[in-house]
Amino acid sequence: MKTPQTLEEFMAQALVMEREAAQRYNDLADAMEMHNNRDVAQMFRTMAGYEAKHAQAIMEEMNWVEVPGVPTGAWPAMEPPESVPNDEVHYLMHPWHALKLALAAEERAEAFFSELARLAGSDSVRRAALELRDEEAEHVSLVKAWLAKTPKPEGDWANDPDPPRYVD
Amino acid sequence: MNDMTHPAPLAPASFKSGTKPIWCPGCGDYSVLSSVTKALALLGKPPHEVAVVSGIGCSSRIPAYTSCYGFHGVHGRSLAAATGLKVARPDLTVLVAGGDGDGYSIGGNHFLHACRRNVDLTYIVMDNHVYGMTKGQASPTTEPDWDNKLSPGGTGVRSFHPLVIALASGANFVARAFAGDPNGTAEIIARGMRHPGFSFIEILSPCITFRPEQREWKNHVHPAAVEATDDAARAARRIMTDDGFNIGVLYAGGRTPYPTVMRGDSRAAVAALETEFEL
Fold first, then answer.
1. Does A162 touch chain B if contact means CB atoms closer than 8 Å?
2. Beta-ladder partners of B246
3. What ipTM was predicted for this assembly?
4. How does pLDDT run across A113-147, given as a tens digit for each residue?
5. Cβ–Cβ of B30/A35 closer than 8 Å?
6. Which domains does chain A have, with CATH numbers?
7. Which of A14, B124, B150, B207 lies at a 20 to 30 A Cα distance from B70?
8. Which of A9, A31, A69 lies at the smallest CB-CB distance from B7?
9. pTM of the model
10. What is the arrangement of strands in the sheet containing B173-178, beginning at the earlier edge strand?
């Protein structure tokens, strides 16, 4: 993973991560709407709104009018850490599942900023990374609290009386 | 990717239409759509200078989800339509999209000859080794021992090897990408679109409904260990002996593309053609 050398590079990375997370949540919300899973669609849409706000806050803090790019290899995995993997959703999933995915995404983001703080080559990058790590830790707590209030689905939640594939 | 001082002039969102995809949630094609819009943003061509042409199948729905010109054509004939379009309108950037069934079975013959003609097109195949839209039949790239309700015990038929066939048939750019890496895939698509001649990009795009085991692909893919070669024989050897999960540009050749020079006013030419057919 390439580590940012300047505060601008670091904040660009943070911004792209938030924007891509927001876009992914919106895409997942669209997919759920098309499959009439409105509760989960609403959940993803809400998460998209939060991520978009974080991105906007970075744009304002940095006085950017255009979104900068990030170099290839900026992420520890194939996608930015806060993006929910596209293949981990199911058309019959419940809001509880959506929150579990969101929780995992926030935890990955917290670990990512923690790692960048550890690897930072300057005080300005380290301070910014620690600040964003703490913000992500706060989000982890919020999602956990939300999850605690959300009913866990029964074990047969994925059973479909009219499944898309042939079954025995 | 664009660098820090030169942001992309168009955002990926500019290339999305208002039509929402109806793919199964979790389908790899969502990520490919995202990669296509990112690639077009990287190229910086406005939507009206790009045409997306497809055949039939889940992945072939993609033109409707972009704001570019689109043609959702006949099963297996996307390359024929795209070839005609590019020859008639060389000013357009033409992206062709489809799946493994559409491209390698119904459209297999067109695939061979599109590679051979080397018209300046970019062809992306979202390969999930199954016919998804028609409920999970084996496709040309399905493993011979894939056991399922529709082919008990597997078909026993050897899998098609699209990258080698593209190379042997004359494709000028050959690459493999993975849907779960949308940014990497966007870069490969953009490279393919910039490369002159026929560019073929196989994108491993999991079908989570009929091939749920393909979720494991993300644990198998890895970047190609070496840079692309312009030596077709070397590329063929590498592709024949890799594990099928080698991601990156594998061949970038230097064949001269099929000439597509704009001859005069295309509207006048079409009008003249229509006159010839008047009864």
1. no
2. B222
3. 0.92
4. 999 999 999 999 999 999 999 999 999 999 999 99
5. no
6. 7-148 (1.20.1260.10)
7. B207
8. A69
9. 0.92
10. B69-72, B50-54, B93-99, B122-127, B199-204, B173-178, B246-252, B222-223
